[in-house]
Amino acid sequence: MFNHPPKTIHDVSDKAGVSPATVSRVFNAPQTVRLPLRERVQAAALVLGYRPNTAARSLRTQRTKALGVVLPTLLNPVFAECLQGVSQAAMLGGYSIVPITTDYEVAHESRAVDLLLARGVDALILCVANAARSKVLARLRAANATYVLVYNRHARHPCVSVDGGAAVTTLVARLHALGHRRILMVSGALRTSDRAQQRHRGYLRGMQMSGLAPLLLEVPFMDGATDRIVAQLSELEGSPVMPTALVCSNDLLAIRSVRAARQLGLRVPDDLSIAGFDGIALGCDLTPALSTIVQPNAEMGRRSVEWLVRALAADVPLNAVDSLTLDLHFRDGESMASPRSAPLISAQVLSQPTPRRTRP
Amino acid sequence: MFNHPPKTIHDVSDKAGVSPATVSRVFNAPQTVRLPLRERVQAAALVLGYRPNTAARSLRTQRTKALGVVLPTLLNPVFAECLQGVSQAAMLGGYSIVPITTDYEVAHESRAVDLLLARGVDALILCVANAARSKVLARLRAANATYVLVYNRHARHPCVSVDGGAAVTTLVARLHALGHRRILMVSGALRTSDRAQQRHRGYLRGMQMSGLAPLLLEVPFMDGATDRIVAQLSELEGSPVMPTALVCSNDLLAIRSVRAARQLGLRVPDDLSIAGFDGIALGCDLTPALSTIVQPNAEMGRRSVEWLVRALAADVPLNAVDSLTLDLHFRDGESMASPRSAPLISAQVLSQPTPRRTRP
DNA sequence: CTGTTAGCGCATTCAC
DNA sequence: GTGAATGCGCTAACAG
Question: Exposure of B347 by Cβ count < 10 A (0-12 exposed, 13-18 middle, 19+ buried)?
Answer without folding.
Answer: middle
